[in-house]
């Protein structure tokens, strides 16, 4: 399975993206497997918190670009809806969720991390939204969640320049809960797990529901069918990415 689930005796559920050969990028199979793992968590009353991580010291490079190379409007719309629904389900879990970010969280990988309640990263990790540079759009609720997390000014910088920032900078602007040295990452995540498990689970559920009421509504963003029907330049950018040649579009 592309997403592995393990629950320890304390009620810590660990979800691991297990597609390292593709830098744990998210294709349709990965999203579907993630949905199945979320279903298991939702139906397990013993789960007290969820830690989300990638395999082999790499969080998530984003959406699998091969799925978006030239998907056509119908497939693009299906992928958009699948990812949006899956991430909304993660955000709505009744227990606290913690993203453990190593190496990078880019594009859809950062959207995935933003669907979690808490994020811990290494200081040298790369976080950002490179979609505009590749002729893609942010597909899975990332616009609303980023604005909710860091505000308009920082969100515009990340989206409109398509330039990643470091984990240390992400902590400075509030994109992540904490940035630590690589050898401290596991310990920092475990400290959050212990703090969460020490709390009353019903109280945490009520707090999560209350906070959700203040969040920006995540739309079925944006109009992918029209975008992929009309944007020849975006297709050229994606083909240039696959062929690793420069583009002037």
Automatic annotation (TrEMBL):
Entry annotated with the keyword RNA-binding: no
InterPro entries named in the record: ClpP/crotonase-like_dom_sf, Enoyl-CoA_hydra/iso
Keywords, sorted A to Z: Isomerase
GO terms under biological process: fatty acid beta-oxidation
Entry keyword annotation includes Protease: no
MF annotations from Gene Ontology: isomerase activity
Pfam family, one: ECH_1
PANTHER family: ENOYL-COA HYDRATASE, MITOCHONDRIAL, ENOYL-COA HYDRATASE-RELATED
Name of the protein this chain belongs to: Enoyl-CoA hydratase/isomerase family protein
The species this protein was found in: Sphaerisporangium album
